[in-house]
Each structure stands twice: as structure tokens, then as C-alpha cells.
Amino acid sequence: MQPNPTRKTIGFLSFGHWTPHPQSATQSAADVLIQSIELAEAAEEVGADGAYYRVHHFARQLASPFPLLAAVGARTSRIEIGTGVIDMRYENPLYMAEDAGAADLISGGRLQLGISRGSPEQVVDGFRHFGHEPREGESSADLARRHTARFLEVLSGEGFAEPSPRPMFPNPPGLLRIEPHSEGLRRRIWWGAGSRDTAEWAGRQGLNLMSSTLLTEDAGLPFHALQAEQIRRFRTAWAEAGHDWEPRVSVSRSIFPLVTAQDHAYFGLERRSTDQVGMLEGGRATFGKTYAAEPDELARQLAQDEAVAEADTLLLTVPNQLGVDYNAHLLRSLIRDVAPALGWR
């Protein structure tokens, strides 16, 4: 299972920030929701392949993904739609399976659902407010994986619930499953892995790999090299598990082609960006750099990124508060001015 060195699936990843400030194009939750749909439409028009959204609770960001995903699916016809990622500590697995099945059917089978143990929270143990408690001896990460296991079970479409002897409506024979069921969705679930060990776990579980601009470890390697090793370990674990389909791998990058005066004004100083190592939840973490340069130089730099080379999917993290038009411009610049030089288009 070697990575495809040529064409990349290219999408955007929006954190969906909104701030009641006059310089923000998204000053309310309504603004960011509507613009998230509009950006997906614009991305499809400029030739991008995917629209992905981050999920954070108790924050002025996107939080409830399925109404948004369903709306994007209804307003677009070609691009993939997904999340990067849903915190499974907060989720009711069966209700989530219903929502995911509905969104996938509305989109015609274009859902690519990224899930994970979650990131640092805005509040203390926010999942408890949603009614979810770790069992005795469980960590919050264990809680997320337990929810994930149940979610994947019900996505299989196998019946498990005993039908009522006096149902309101006639039932099909046998045990009943979650409805609506969307065939094939189980193979379009991704795990957001923050470490090499977690990537190996995802490979064993038969989950596609979603890796971000942050790894929760520091091995003394450049970020892209550490992430490339994570991807290779994932592929090895996948092969050893014997799954009978090919996995996908995505990486996220902050990439700003400097094409216009506005680009230079916003992101020209990011030319000096470098990887950073810091502390996150009590442990060392490695943060990837921002790429900002003229298209030719950007192509040269990205060609040296080992993890981008390993992945089949590249998600461009967008500054959503700059508005739909500017972010569509960023996507267009990457696809038109950078991707062809790398053989991605």
C-alpha cells in the first residue's frame, strides 16, 4: 500500500470561528454557519475536492456538525464533506449513527467523517455535561474509544434490537438496526491521530487516518518527518490487520500562496514560520509550521514535506473569519498556481 505520489485530493478545513468584532466577517453563529455552506459551494466551483469542519463544544466555533453537513450535502453535488474531528467523548453512538446516516444519504454518499478522542476542552470535563461518564477505571480517552466501538458496530447495518411484539408499524423480519442506514459509510470513518501509537491503533481498527498540524509527542524530528513516520506505521498496522480495502490518509496544513497584495498584507510575515515544540495537557507536543510564499517557492517547499508526499488527501486550514471570497481565493490559488507544479493536478 504505497501512497499515490501524484494527484492529491485537496479540501479545506474550517474551525468555524466567530467573533463579535467589526473586523471579523463572521460575527455570529449564524454568520459562520451560513458562510460555511457558502464556502463549500465556492470550493466546489474552484475545483476543490472537499469541505471539512472542526467541531468544538462550549466555544464560539462550529459545534453541531450534522445539520451543517446535511445542508452542505444538499447544496453541493461533487465534493466530499466531512469533519476534522468530532470528539467522541461527547457523542451518543446510536443517535450519532442516525445523524451520520441521514447526512450521508442526503449527500449521495459523500460523507467522510473524522472522529477522535478530542482536543483540549474549553471547560472542565465538558462531556459530563452531555451526560457521559467514564466507567470505573476508565480515562476520558477510554470513554471516547468505547463510544467509537459502539458507533462502528451499529454502522455495520447488522440488526441488534429486539422488535416489539406490538409495533406501531410493521417491522421487517429479525432484529432491527439503526435507521437510516447508509451502505458504505463504515469505510469512510477517519480517526484523528495525534501520535504514532494512536495511528497504529487506527490502522488496526480499520479507520482511515486523519493527521493534523499538531502531534502530541516530540521525537527530535522535523514535524513533517515525524508525521510521515506516523503515516508509515499506520499503513503497516493496517496491512498486518488484513483489512480488505485500501485506507486513506489526510494531513492538514496552513498554506498561503502569496499572489496578491492582500495575501502579502495578511500572511507575508509567515514566511519565517518554523516548527514549534510546546506543552499540551502536560506533555510535549510538536506543532507544524505555516507555509507562506510565492507559488513557485511554495511548490518547492511542499515538495520537501515528507508527510504531504505520503498522504493522498491535503486539507488546507482556512482563516474563516476573513470571509468566503478570500478563502475561495486561497483555494483557487493553491489549485491553480501550486498544485500543477507538484503533479497534484
UniProtKB/TrEMBL annotation:
This protein's UniProt keywords: Monooxygenase, Oxidoreductase
GO cellular component terms given for this protein: cytosol
Superkingdom per UniProt: Bacteria
Keyword Oxidoreductase (UniProt): yes
GO terms assigned for molecular function: monooxygenase activity; oxidoreductase activity, acting on paired donors, with incorporation or reduction of molecular oxygen
InterPro entries the record matches: Bact_Lucif_Oxidored, Luciferase-like_dom, Luciferase-like_sf
Gene3D superfamilies: Luciferase-like domain
Keyword tRNA processing: no
Luciferase-like domain boundaries: 15-260
PANTHER family with a match to the protein in the record: BLL6902 PROTEIN, LUCIFERASE-LIKE MONOOXYGENASE
Protein name stated in the entry: Flavin-dependent oxidoreductase, luciferase family (Includes alkanesulfonate monooxygenase SsuD and methylene tetrahydromethanopterin reductase)
Species in which this protein is naturally found: Ornithinimicrobium cerasi
